Amino acid sequence: MKYRSVFDIIGPVMIGPSSSHTAGAARIGRMARRLFGRVPHKAQIEFCGSFAKTYQGHGTDVAIVGGLMGFDTHDPRIKDALKISEDIGLAISITTVDLPEEHPNTAWIRLEDEAGAMRVKGISVGGGKIAMLEADEFQMNLSGDAWTAFVFHKDQFGLIASVASVLADRRINIARMEMSRKAKGQEALLIIETDEEISASAGSQIAGIADVAHVRILPPL
Amino acid sequence: MQFSTIEELVQLAEAQGQAIADIMIEEEALATGVPKEKIISKMFQHLDTMEKAVQRGLTEEIRSRSGLTGGDARKLEGYLRQGSTLSGQRVLQAVSRAIATNEVNAAMGTIVATPTAGASGVIPGCLFGLAGELGVDRDVMVRFLFTSGAIGYVIANRSFISGAAGGCQAEVGSASAMAAGAIVEMAGGTPRQSAHAVAIALKNTLGLVCDPVAGLVEVPCVMRNAMGASNAIVSADLALAGIESIIPADEVIGAMYRVGQAMPGTLKETALGGLAATPTGERHRQRLFGSSHERAEEKGGIQDE
């Protein structure tokens, strides 16, 4: 089920004019910023499909940039996001690409600062719901609606069991889990969505597991 | 959720002798683990946000950045106050509030997506247009939102609710069906009658394309919200009169999905077909965004289809 709550249907509260092109774009931007983990200095945005054709009219550009600055879907500053990004020194470039095989509302975002860069791909599926499909070359299918743990590690047997037992001990229920790796025995990413909040202490306990490089915990969008 | 079809929703309500709103609240609490009081109070906040948008649209000088929309809700209110109308007080009150909300949306104001922003006028329009007439209180109004949410939950998961995925039938069509079912419940009808209202309303909007002029959620979206509200009220009346839809709601939802799949991309929120591609639609696009090389290529693309 794509939609899991009555508030996916009656909601979100948002700045108009389009739930998929404005609210969804804001959420993609916000999720991209959270995945990057820092304030970016530069963002290159590429729109595909309906996003590419209609982004000016829908305010998709201001919404996604607002999201990159952490604005929620109902934040009235969204309207002025391009101006605000200029003021805070976040350089934005927006281009369109024709990729017919992609979802009609797809955005690619490359975020950059001195410490590094990350490229993410997000789609807006309707009514403000989104899915992040790729980050830093890891494949995923992330809604941003749940507490999520990102466990970066070296592909190794037994890892999932160790992480799961930390969560089980703390009575944190796993709602969904996905594994993505660059190659066998290489860098891998375990993504776990949970029903309950994942505390910082649970995060650091997971980070202490052998072969775990680092852990990021994100609350629901 | 214990239901994924309209039929299952109706059967749950009938078996438990409850309204669809009660089932939705119960199921939401079970599915999310959030206490019922919190769920209900969040919906009260949504109701307040909707009311503010309606009030803004009816009282303020709303004008979108493009200049294409704004001011029609007030125009209709003035016409309504002058007394003699064809559609009558109740229908036109709902329509003016639907237009008001959608005009605020087009002007980048704050609204609640129901189920989307493009269709955000239909549900609050029907709700605030009828609540006073039917003499219902805020509790009943919040229940209306849960009922429409339950119907929308089924449609969204079994078909689609975005114009880019399924055309306007998925946006205003879905909103109109959600409102129709909820109006029946608010007016004292049975869950079974709500299901017939859903089926009738959605049948009437099957095949509706998403063809926004210049890609803006304005023309024809604002007027489609007006149509969606009136369609919802008439469909609710039909169901309350005991009229039954030959095609059950779930099959209509399935048909909408297949129609949406068959719809060409030019008619799914790309602003390349329908009203967007009329000479006047094209003129407005050029006025607002100018012509570009990219556009010229797209036009070649349309002719190929």
TrEMBL record, chain A:
Pfam families: ACT, SDH_beta. Pathway: Carbohydrate biosynthesis; gluconeogenesis. The keyword Lyase applies. PANTHER family: L-SERINE DEHYDRATASE, L-SERINE DEHYDRATASE, BETA CHAIN-RELATED. The gene is sdaAB. Residues 148-220 form the ACT domain. CDD domains: ACT_LSD (cd04903). Belongs to the iron-sulfur dependent L-serine dehydratase family. InterPro entries: ACT-like_dom_sf, ACT_dom, ASB_dom_sf, Fe-S_L-Ser, Fe-S_L-Ser_bsu, Ser_deHydtase_bsu. It catalyses: L-serine = pyruvate + NH4(+). This is L-serine deaminase. Signal peptide: none annotated. SUPFAM superfamilies: ACT-like, Serine metabolism enzymes domain.
UniProtKB/TrEMBL annotation, chain B:
It catalyses: L-serine = pyruvate + NH4(+). Residues 17-276 form the Serine dehydratase-like alpha subunit domain. Residues 292-305 have a biased composition (Basic and acidic residues). It holds the Pfam family SDH_alpha. The keyword Glycoprotein does not apply. Pathway: Carbohydrate biosynthesis; gluconeogenesis. Its cofactor is [4Fe-4S] cluster. Residues 276-305 are annotated as: Disordered. The keyword Iron applies. Belongs to the iron-sulfur dependent L-serine dehydratase family. This is L-serine dehydratase. The lineage of its organism: Bacteria, Bacillati, Bacillota, Bacilli, Bacillales.
